[in-house]
Fold these 4 entries.
Entry 1:
Amino acid sequence: MVLGGAVHVGFSCFSSCISSLSNGGLSRKFSSTKLHKPLAMASMSNDPIREWILSEGKATEISRISPVGGGCINLATRYDTDAGSFFVKTNRNIGPSMFDGEALGLNAMYETRTIRVPKPFKVGSLPTGGSYIIMEFIEFGASRSNQSELGRKLAEMHKAGKSNKGFGFDVDNTIGSTPQINTWTSDWVEFYAEHRLGYQLKLARQQYGDSTIYERGQRLAKNIGSLFEGVVIEPCLLHGDLWSGNITSDRNGEPVILDPACYYGHNEAEFGMSWCAGFGGSFYIAYFEVMPKQPGFEKRRDLYLLYHYLNHYNLFGSSYRSSAMSIIDDCLLMLKA
């Protein structure tokens, strides 16, 4: 989003690839206790955002407050100060839990010291209801990103960000405005079948009464194990919602990713939004030089697309149903299930 010759990261707008789709997911360092401990004092203020910037943010003056367009879930604002610029998202209807999840994801990615993400600073409640998140403001460069560098940096993040708890995340978060369940699970196939495909299939049945896609999808979910035979699966830190609207570059041309829906999962699941991410050949070549391709990758690719097609179906309606159903039927045929 252009703003005075510059652009910034972090505004939320979940839609189709033609519109804007995003949202996101924080690290241990930003536990709920630490995030909300300063809130007792801040909540006494009519403007906890300004109070934080002028205290813990180390600013003595706010020179300009300007809206950043492009959001359809949250209101985005830029605060220019003598200590630098801050990016703030607010939501008048939702409590801090959504932004807690986003901050945890951003911080987890930030701590890998691999690919650039906006550093989160503070999450809190608004006195009039709702919540906010304050984070680093990043000036965008002219180009979207270097594909080779993006592939290499993303692979480095996957390689560096590991979990000893299994697959999942410390908190549930959102994929767009859909809840994303991140209950820790030791087995990846079980996690993906239940908390990714299974959850979306249940939503489709609840929202649309779609018993056909539910029953066929559940049959697929119960039979995906053979697609992972001989595959080494480690819990890698995933951005979780990597499409073109969440990928850009800074003024030095370094890739930047934003608005995550983080969790620890199979690294190949990161490509589930590739149908509107614009990954080219140079991206995959660079990525697989760091994280080597495993046997059966091409057969699993559609399985990872399916989660996001189902989510689009649940969020935006029937125009995405045929794509989801086609993947389910093709996978069932391939697996002879």
Entry 2:
Amino acid sequence: MILTVTPNPSLDRTYEVPALDRGEVLRATAERMDPGGKGVNVSRAVAAAGRRTVAVLPLGGAPGALVAELLAQQGIEVAPVPVAGATRSNIALAEPDGTLTKINAPGPELTGAESEALLATVRARIGAHAGAGAGTGRDGDAVTWIACCGSLPRGLAPEWYAELVARAHEAGARIALDTSGPSLLAALRERPDVVKPNAEELAQAVGRPLATVGDAVKAAEELRTYGAAAVLASLGADGQLLVTETGTYFGSATVTSVRSNVGAGDASLAGFLAAGGEGPAALASAVAHGAAAVQLPGSVMPSPGDLDLSAVTVTADVPLDRLLTEPAS
């Protein structure tokens, strides 16, 4: 069972438009409404794969109630932490060529009591599993991974994720962390089992631009020296890297068309964790999930029928000199 933690969830509305003309009235050709937030998307992808998942998240107001309802409709168990502020609503405008314009609201400001309640809920859901190296859910399902994902809402200090990683490790759970900036750097001291930056976040973490795949490998290796046990780095259209103590692997996939990249990185992390969370086979699953997600509308998460592992290539012969399609600064 994969537990996800989303400190700043959202209600996401995606509109498909013929073109984004500033100052004009835009008429959408299609629309979707989905529960959002990086950890929420991981839970949605895990559930689409037929695996059990529990989503821990603060929820408030009518948007929060709707997020819980939409998750329940997808068979996802929700462990809500009630908060006074209303859950944020985000808007995405998707154009036919795959260009996506997003408007993300800041979200509510959490109080100290709400912050502690969120941490306590995670610990309660992990439980204690003495001697087995893993937590257990309420009905005894092993908590194999905890995915802590996304930005922190107002009111939570950058060290909040570090505290969560520490508490989860004390309970015997493995941690996958997908965040950026000061929150990522602060959490590294607690040695998360996997961190999942994209190229821009990786460049920001090491303080220098990345122009090649080799640059990204060096940056990932640097994050490992800071404390990350493994780094799963998304390089956009160029593929993904997995850098661990035992080896470095590069994965890529053939994608025929891009419809929306909303949640593609979250789908990749879900695929990685659902496949065990280590080694080239898990990387192949991550790449397949990400490639499938970009070919679906809005933030729809791929199901097993959407995956094409035959289009995925994973190799230990990393193309270090390959220029990144979108260099990261």
Entry 3:
Amino acid sequence: MSLDPSYITPGKDFDRDTNYIEDRITQDGRDGWPVEPGRYRLVAARACPWANRTTIVRRLLGLEGVISLGLPGPTHDKNSWTFDLDPGGVDPVLGIERLQQAFFARFPDYPRGITVPAIVDVTSGQVVTNNYPQITLDFETEWIAHHRAGAPDLYPQALRAEIGEVANLIFHDVNNGVYKCGFAGSQKSYERAYDALFARLDWLEERLAGQRYLVGDTITEADIRLFTTLARFDAVYHGHFKCNRNKLSEMPVLWAYARDLFQTPGFGDTIDFNQIKKHYYVTHVDINPSGIVPKGPDAAAWLAPHSRADLGGRPFGTGTPPEPPLPAERIVN
């Protein structure tokens, strides 16, 4: 597979393209895409932290029987994510080999990167949206009639402003901050991103010392957005992206917080460490030209006791944990 080596622009900061397809799937169908069980397929690679958010929310809200899940493999070439894990390399529902085909079915001259997560309209085979921050918010608000009994409120109305503020800080300094380190094109841009990343992690360490979750006393969208980066920190970002002031496992509060979420149904059961490591270490050939994938760290450490319940809090509020993953979606690390 020919992989794209152009992640780093010499002399430049990493600048993420955040221009996504802004169509939304809503109850009133105002963009032409009404909420409709069975109509849409979520395409979300296990390796990708942005896609991982959508698989967690889908699990927590019990949308597995409403929105199907397509799983590309952990690596991709310069053109697209591919369905190389499926028999014959073809997605069994969409009938395509590359996610790119769904984008081109709607936009024949689509000029940007083919990203996950993406939602595809199964009947037409056309991509609906790849706007990952909005996808989870819409799962939480527009699909509410199809949530499972006992589904948690991940985006409480009274806390939305604070969730947005915290999530914005986390995005710039942590979620995207690790990429600003890893894809920095100069020493100065790397050090600037490095300093911002660890200043924010220190801020989170302090914030979470006295409260179990980021906003309020239950799991919210803010926790989900932070978790997917923390889950990849020691396995990938610490070494591969040079985020090496310390490991997550050397930050006692954040490490316990991350383990608490990992051991919560709907979180750790979406994490495939093997695919995560393969994606970063094989795809980013400009950073790791050998393509060698590290064996460690030992994932068993994620199951160690965390004592975060001593802080109180109710993981699912007045709701309940989700059922175990569907057999076809279970992960063996």
Entry 4:
Amino acid sequence: MAESQAAAVSSSTLKIDTVSISETAETASAMAVTSVAAAIAAAARTGSEARVSKAALAAKLLSLSGVFAVRKPKGPTSAELLNRLKEKLLAEAEMPSPEWTKRKKQTLKIGHGGTLDSAAQGVLVVGIGRGTKMLTSMLSGSKRYIAIGELGKATDTLDSTGKVTEEKPYDKITQEDIEGILQKFTGNIMQVPPLYSALKKDGQRLSTLMKRGEVVEAKPARPVTVYSISLQKFQPPFFTLDVECGGGFYIRSLVSDIGRELSSCASVLELTRTKQGPFTLEEHALPEDKWTIDDIAQCLEHCSSLLPAELALKKSKPEGTHEQVLSCEYITLNETKGEDDGIKTL
């Protein structure tokens, strides 16, 4: 009797355990299916959100329009730096995207005004969107430079990137001597542009012709304006100048002319543009780690207050729709009067 009861209990327990196990398995299976479905739904939402995010970034990039400034380091040319900026913006917006290739293309216009060569650093003014049309007006403003000149050494490019063409003594030159001649280079003066420059002959840059070894005649002297010039430091053979000038002025020519006026010779060792128009190096020039769509949008908003009233009124509206793909048009607008920094590498 006891054995029979025990068997019955055992059998009952077995049935309960079996049912429990079966129900647990079914529940687990259902939970797994639900989990997979949830994961798929979440992935779909994430993918959809990602597409929306990309489209929003692309639209915001295409809507950027105006003028701002970036901080150019030594090393790249102005053109190379602008290309780097363009690539960073494209990469952030992940443009162009494959799913948009069949749709109408939208061109992103971006350019710079006022070339700085590879050896120079400082403010580089950039126009984006319709801001590229403002660059010519921006170039009419003054520019400010800190230039370090080296006495006793002349080069074919008038800066440290060129070949030494002449060496003369400088040991008798004093601080008073330099300060005494600076007045000659202030105001409305005549200046001969350097041979290595962005100026053109028969459609080609003089610097390009020089690199080919072709004979190039110097351009005639032309009127330029120097608003102020001061000697900041003199530690022979080096002297530091703070110069504010108008468009078309060459700092390299200035330093070379100063050396000649002192019965010696001189060339530019370092050059930093600290101001162009209303943009200053410390307040407005974006460093490379700030080259993002949001940072540039904020900078454009801030810089709009710096523009002349006639330009601010022409602030452009976003062009195109969110469904347009981006292709790049690389535009460089150089001042027709010529630039005032080392141009050897151009």
